[in-house]
């Protein structure tokens, strides 16, 4: 499988991510994509060929293998990586839409135009919501695939011996999984990295919401202080006019005293 497109996607979205998002991208690319491409595909490459059962009954081997491995781990992880990384494309598309809108606005009004966005990549307005929704979607995808992996295989363990009673097997037959310990280690590793990615996405959502709340509170506080200062200046000016204080500017032509 060619992961060049996925690598370009992760590199592009890295420019618009927070610190938590960059750590998430590093973990996904180094500890999930690279491990999947370099090691996992080779570990599961012989799973069906080396799945042995102590019977020569035609069809029993295939039925037992399908019963214990209804979906390949490798294909399940490939789907998970695709679904968990593609939402990042929405952020890139949204930024591209902003840049195109800004370019058309400049062509319409010339060089002295008023900018629509001060920074097209800054997470404000619709882009902020797009980024939050992609994080929620990533959390949902990772959590769903962790559950599916546990539900389909009834856990994350690989026993070296499994007993099969499916038809057309003549009786209970013993089947042996190839390299069960190695498969168990890689399965636990992928599940743990998925949990770490979920935690990082949750931290990033909390960080973005907290940062936005702080900015709104700071903006309201600044506006309130400015409003109070304007009222204080107006009250002082009224007092000076009433009392006829010498605090008037000493320019009788511009400010004649009454």
UniProtKB/TrEMBL annotation:
Domain Connexin N-terminal: 42-75
Principal subcellular localization: other
Compartmental location: Cell junction, Gap junction; Cell membrane
Record keyword Transmembrane helix present: yes
PROSITE patterns: CONNEXINS_1, CONNEXINS_2
Listed GO MF terms: gap junction channel activity
Keyword Transferase: no
GO CC aspect terms: connexin complex
Transmembrane feature ranges: 21-40, 77-97, 128-153, 185-210
GO biological process: cell-cell signaling
Keywords: Cell junction, Cell membrane, Gap junction, Membrane, Transmembrane, Transmembrane helix
Membrane topology of this protein: Multi-pass membrane protein
Domain Connexin cysteine-rich per the UniProt entry, residue ranges: 141-208
Pfam family, one: Connexin
Subunit text: A connexon is composed of a hexamer of connexins.
Function: One gap junction consists of a cluster of closely packed pairs of transmembrane channels, the connexons, through which materials of low MW diffuse from one cell to a neighboring cell.
Family: Belongs to the connexin family.
Designated name of the protein: Gap junction protein
UniProt source species: Kryptolebias marmoratus (Mangrove killifish)
Source species taxonomy: Eukaryota, Metazoa, Chordata, Craniata, Vertebrata
């Amino acid at each position: 499988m060619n992961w060049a497109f996925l690598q370009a996607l992760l590199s592009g979205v890295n420019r618009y991510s927070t610190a938590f998002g960059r750590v998430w991208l590093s973990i996904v690319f180094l500890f999930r994509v690279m491990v999947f491409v370099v090691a996992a595909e080779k570990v599961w490459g012989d799973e069906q060929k080396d799945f042995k059962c102590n019977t020569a009954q035609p069809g029993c081997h295939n039925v037992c293998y399908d019963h214990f491995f209804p979906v390949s781990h490798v294909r399940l992880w490939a789907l998970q990586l695709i679904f968990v990384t593609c939402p990042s494309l929405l952020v890139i598309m949204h930024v591209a839409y902003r840049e195109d809108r800004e370019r058309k606005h400049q062509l319409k009004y010339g060089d002295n135009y008023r900018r629509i966005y001060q920074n097209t990549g800054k997470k404000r307005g619709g882009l902020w919501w797009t980024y939050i929704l992609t994080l929620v979607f990533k959390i949902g995808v990772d959590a769903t695939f962790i559950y599916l992996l546990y539900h389909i295989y009834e856990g994350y363990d690989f026993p070296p011996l499994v007993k099969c009673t499916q038809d057309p097997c003549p009786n209970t037959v013993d089947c042996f999984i190839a390299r069960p310990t190695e498969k168990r280690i890689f399965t636990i590793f992928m599940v743990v990295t998925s949990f770490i990615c979920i935690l990082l996405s949750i931290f990033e959502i909390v960080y973005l919401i907290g940062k936005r709340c702080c900015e709104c509170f700071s903006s309201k506080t600044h506006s309130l202080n400015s409003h109070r200062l304007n009222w204080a200046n107006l009250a002082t000016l009224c007092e000076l006019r009433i009392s006829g204080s010498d605090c008037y500017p000493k320019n009788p032509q511009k400010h004649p005293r009454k």
